């Protein structure tokens, strides 16, 4: 019989700046205690950047627009998917040194073992990023 994988953890949050902190706390708080010292800070930063981008660039400004987060472990990684109802495709930017923003995906690219952007089946976009961890950590 095959091993049954863990069930992913889901959250739905309003597309509001206050959701960034809530998302970060929820995601890092869901890590097993033994992994928090190894992954907590990086996963918290990934969460903050992806949720901030989803709110700024993917939400349409209506109350019903929610940001969805999914967290799951698979094949030596913790995967985080952050989805929004927007139709745009996030891309890496290389802002000038004096730019005040535009570095979120650069941080994601630096921290994540792998990341990608996927369209959602009905509407919206998901950014999926994975952080590697050692089994038994």
From TrEMBL:
InterPro entries: Anti-sigma-factor_SerPK, HATPase_C_sf, HATPase_dom. SUPFAM superfamilies: ATPase domain of HSP90 chaperone/DNA topoisomerase II/histidine kinase. Pfam families: HATPase_c_2. One of its GO terms (molecular function) is ATP binding. The keyword Kinase applies. The keyword ATP-binding applies. Keywords: ATP-binding, Kinase, Nucleotide-binding, Serine/threonine-protein kinase, Transferase. Residues 13-127 form the Histidine kinase/HSP90-like ATPase domain. Transmembrane segments: none annotated. This is ATP-binding protein.
